[in-house]
């Protein structure tokens, strides 16, 4: 990275307020590209892993549901542990960005292993899936928690944060589009030379190599301008700080918001292949159904800076949730069969537009509970706060992964067979009705209980600066 960007003499202030810095173009591009790279691999998990396990690797849906459920209970230990480690350590090269650099290669290797299909016995396949899937999630946490936390010490300017996060999530969704199209289509093309299972592994390997290269470059573009709070060797972050933080109202509501938003996303992603294959009778449209969700979200994200200026942050969140609910309802109302593909795609696009808005705004406002926690507790534990908020995302994966597989198994689902009326009904309800209900419930919770607005955050930042001696 250009050393001039590391020199505080070259930092540009956007206001006299403490920590209000302008972010350079290369820095924003580098930071945002990290999420593009992560989504090349992680969206492979969100969009296709359940379908891969049941219809390609040959695992039973009930066992896949149990695998996802057990993994989320492990996250209850692993995620807070990682957040605490981040706050207890202070690497010489940087507080947060170095974890992206360190974790990139292991994450890429394990991604390839996750989409590999060794010729084991059934029980050994299940063990293989459990080990690789959990390692992948642990490495994702190792990277994403510090990465997201870095935004809180790059600048305090909310407009700069929104600009950076909007670009970040635009690229993140673009990475999802690449994954949605490339994984099934390139894997299918490669069946000319190998099995479909091998095609999935090779395609994942290609994306993993690209991901690692981008993560290495992007991590070095981050400038941590705001000094992290000094670590007191006699009072380091610990388990008590986790319980103190989770009791704070805005932190808990943000956790519920992430739970709601990512539940909608995970359910739609998990059920998409099943919906196209069995309800729409259009297996050849699986990649397009996934792609339209991600493509519409790419359109939604860039609208966020405009929306936050016109209607503020909280109404922007509610708008995104409302669009997700409306789109899900459209999908639910579509009759079975390929004759309804136009309406199905239209509903999916509306969901994607709402999801894009949510992705743009969620990662902009997630720094607000971090500052609220700092203000209330006196500790700037960004990684711990994000860990707790991120648990909403991880437990959305329980609902989006375990619940659909459990319901399908109970309804009598058998992979690659003609499905019963009970299974078809379950697929329809899981794909559309459940996300509609989740969107509605999340709107109510967020509208009623989230109290942080732009004026309150500005006041909190000023009081933190005065407390820490950052103003005269």
Order of helices and strands: HHHHHHHHHHHHHHHH
Structural class, by secondary structure, is mainly alpha
What's the total count of β strands?
A: 0
Q: What's the CATH first level?
A: Mainly Alpha
Counting structural domains, the number is: 1
Average pLDDT across residues? Answer: 88
> How far do the termini sit from each other?
33 Å
Summarize the main sheet: none
pLDDT below 50 for ≥5 consecutive residues: which ranges? none
CATH architectural label: Up-down Bundle
Number of separate helices: 16
Structure summary:
With 472 residues, this protein is an all-alpha fold. The chain has 16 helices and no strands.
Can you offer a commentary on this structure?
The chain is an all-alpha fold and 472 residues long. It has a single domain (24-226, 237-467), classed as MFS general substrate transporter like domains (Growth Hormone, Chain: A). 75% of the residues lie in helices and 0% in strands. Helix 2 (61-88) runs parallel beside helix 4 (122-150), helix 2 (61-88) runs antiparallel to helix 14 (382-411) and helix 3 runs antiparallel to helix 4. The longest helix is centred in the N-terminal third of the chain and has 32 residues, at 25-56. The chain is globular and about 70 Å long. The two termini are 33 Å apart. The mean pLDDT is 88.
């Amino acid at each position: 990275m250009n050393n001039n960007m590391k020199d505080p003499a070259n930092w540009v202030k956007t206001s006299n307020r403490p920590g209000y810095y302008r972010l350079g173009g290369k820095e924003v591009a580098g930071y945002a590209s990290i999420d593009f790279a992560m989504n090349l691999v992680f969206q492979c998990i969100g969009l296709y892993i359940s379908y891969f396990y049941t219809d390609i690797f040959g695992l039973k849906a009930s066992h896949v549901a149990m695998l996802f459920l057990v993994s989320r209970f492990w996250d209850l230990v692993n995620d807070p542990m990682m957040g605490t480690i981040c706050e207890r350590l202070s690497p010489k090269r940087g507080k947060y960005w170095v974890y992206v650099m360190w974790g990139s290669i292991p994450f890429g290797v394990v991604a390839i292993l996750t989409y590999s299909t060794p010729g084991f016995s059934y029980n050994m396949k299940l063990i293989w899936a459990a080990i690789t899937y959990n390692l992948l999630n642990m490495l994702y946490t190792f990277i994403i928690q510090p990465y997201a936390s870095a935004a809180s010490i790059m600048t305090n300017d909310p407009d700069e944060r929104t600009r950076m996060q909007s670009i970040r999530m635009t690229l993140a969704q673009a990475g999802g589009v690449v994954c949605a199209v490339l994984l099934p289509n390139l894997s299918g093309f490669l069946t000319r030379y190998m099995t479909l299972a091998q095609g999935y592994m090779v395609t994942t390997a290609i994306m993993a190599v690209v991901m690692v290269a981008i993560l290495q470059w992007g991590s070095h573009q981050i400038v941590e301008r705001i000094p992290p709070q000094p670590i007191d060797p006699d009072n380091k972050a610990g388990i008590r700080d986790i319980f103190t933080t989770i009791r704070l109202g805005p932190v808990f509501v943000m956790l519920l918001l992430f739970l709601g938003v990512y539940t909608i996303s995970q359910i739609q992603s998990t059920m998409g292949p099943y919906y196209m294959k069995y309800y729409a009778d259009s297996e050849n449209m699986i990649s397009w159904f996934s792609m339209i969700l991600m493509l519409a979200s790419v359109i939604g994200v860039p609208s966020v800076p405009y929306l936050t200026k016109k209607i503020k942050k909280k109404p922007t969140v509610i708008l995104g949730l409302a669009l997700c609910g409306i789109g899900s309802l459209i999908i639910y109302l579509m009759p079975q069969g390929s004759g309804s593909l136009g309406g199905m795609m239209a509903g999916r696009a509306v969901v994607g537009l709402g999801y894009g808005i949510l992705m743009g705004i969620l990662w902009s406002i997630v720094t607000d509970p971090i500052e609220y926690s700092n203000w209330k507790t006196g500790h700037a534990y960004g990684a711990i706060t994000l860990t707790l908020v991120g648990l909403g995302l991880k437990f959305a994966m329980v609902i989006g992964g375990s619940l659909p597989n459990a319901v399908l198994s109970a309804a009598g689902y058998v992979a690659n067979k003609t499905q019963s009326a009970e299974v078809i009904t379950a697929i329809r309800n899981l794909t559309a009705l459940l996300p509609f209900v989740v969107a509605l419930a999340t709107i109510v919770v967020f509208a009623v209980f989230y109290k942080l607005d732009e004026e309150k955050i500005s006041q909190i930042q000023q009081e933190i600066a005065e407390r820490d001696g950052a103003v005269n």
